[in-house]
Write a structure and sequence with these properties.
heterodimer, A: about 350 residues, alpha+beta, eleven-stranded mixed beta sheet, about 25% strand, B: about 325 residues, Aminopeptidase, Elongation Factor Tu (Ef-tu), domain 3
Amino acid sequence: MYLKELTELDGVSGDEGRVRDFIKEKIESKVDSVKVDVLGNLIAFKKGTKSNRKFVLAAHMDEVGFMVTNVEDDGTLSFAPVGGVDPRVIVGKHVRIKGEVPGVIGYKAIHLQKRNEILESPKYENLRINIGASSKDEATQKVEIGDYVSFATDFRCENSRATGKAFDDRAGCAVLMEIIERSERFEDDLYFAFLVQEETGLRGSAVLFEQLQPNLALVIEGTTAGDDPGLPEHQWATHLGDGPAITFMHRGYVVNKKIYESILQVAQKYDIKHQPKRRTAGGTDAARLAKTGGGVPAGVISVPARYIHSPLSVIDVDDFKNTVSLVGKILEEGEGFAR
Amino acid sequence: MLKCLSGVDGPSGYEDEALKLIEEKIKPYADVLKTSRLNTLIALKRGEGTKKLGIFAHVDELGFVVAKVEERGFIRLEPIGGVDPKVVLSQRIKIFTKQGVVSGVVGFLPPHLQKEDQRGKVPSFDDIFVDVSCSSLGEHVSVGDICVIEGECTELGSKVSGKALDNRASCAALILAAQNLQAIKNRADVYFIFSSQEEIAGPGAVSVAYELGLDEAIVVDVTHGNEKIPQFPQIKISEGPALAVGPVINREFYKALSDVAKRNGVKVQLEPTPGRSGTDTDEVQITGSGIKTALVSIPLMYMHTPVEVADPRDIEETARLIALASTI
């Protein structure tokens, strides 16, 4: 399981290099070929025993984070979000700039805030990253405008729950890596696509069709749970511990019926714990795949995660393992899947 | 040393672990060590007995107490001291249960699932929740357990960032000052006082000030560094300790401290304090038949967040100043 290594690497959209290098090194010897395309997607190929279909398994490497937008005279850094990061979850956090320079996001002391300010959301324009520099000159020796910033969150695993950052979508990357670890060949030609820039508008997946002309795809995600006191029970999207979530529809795409039903059939056939995703909020690369070129019919299977798009999210390790099992069984079905 | 001191946990009323560490650190430099009934540690360094000088630093930090245990592994907190709810979201929380330490996660809904009317508002402690499903001891959490935000203390260039630097930075200064007194000869008998329960304006410092019958007291605490506060001079980090002036400070004692700083090349900043200081100084001054007080503050950025920032050089200069004060 590569969840620890993968989630402790920093790879904000547009800066996926560290994650890509790690994955590439681990999988290179276990597939027939790997390549990195123009956008930075890592595509691994494993030939099938029948090779009648091209089947893409996709997960995105990027995570939400920030970019340094200015170095101020006092040595602090202004920054803007890359992808959707709510400013309410970032105050009082340790961050890493370009994977190495430590910094913190501070906030005006509570003593100096007006009463009505205390429960007001912080605004990006008022927040700064402090790297301990006392002047612009000192700061620019370590960082520059355009540098990427990630949360400095460690990975932990206890009580069969894992906590850390970037489960969206390193959980998906980890699922693909587990599948690659299996030595057998399946009937379809398999393309493992580790994608860039999902969080900034499903961009990496846009160039897959032209390169591969796939027949079908499965997008493996880390998706919203919401099964916590922040929402009443009828609004929960997925439940931790109930297995992989199978998406029926999300923004911009109703999942191909044949694929959706086939996923459910495989899960039922092998008695793998699973759940339907109960809400249609959010979107994945499946929407982009359906819209590019002649369109690729895709399914979406997700590891439920609480508190995503924050420095600290939670998944259930059994959900992860069940996702690996389900995807593995789907591949074992060979040409019978979604036929 | 600062990293160690920031690393131990000790919310108001539960300072034992922090006090134990401080006791270890100051022991080599103290003639007598004792702990008061209200959990305040006193380290005496005898001088010529000219007078009794108390140097105070509070040991306690902000924290929480478990207020409610709900179903499915969620709990609710009440703050101990002035905790800004904004800094609590998406943090790891350490909960001290009878069975051991539980590590919980303060959850927050992702943008995808937020409702329009919740955006822009920060939840108060009524709505903040901690997820303890990720801990194997999660079911042992009970109402009344004490908690802190987990915070790693890290170096940021020449500065240090971490939790509880308010007021462990001052604790470090006192320990360093005690060490300095191996070389500098103190005239006054110096009581280094590591007090409890300041963050809730509690009884730690005053009870000891009364018991010891002090002549003079220097309170060492932190002040807002690099903040622009209208009408006030900006206290800057890395520019040395700030000396307070105002009604809660004895004018002559301030003058003497200011002079000794000047003579010895300790760079200090001036902090006008027209009313109460919000530190133990306020109460210590009116203890017993009155004590001559001074307030020395270490500039600190982002006070009461888990990423407070201080400059260790300011702490060293503070230590030098308070050690020199015992020669007056």
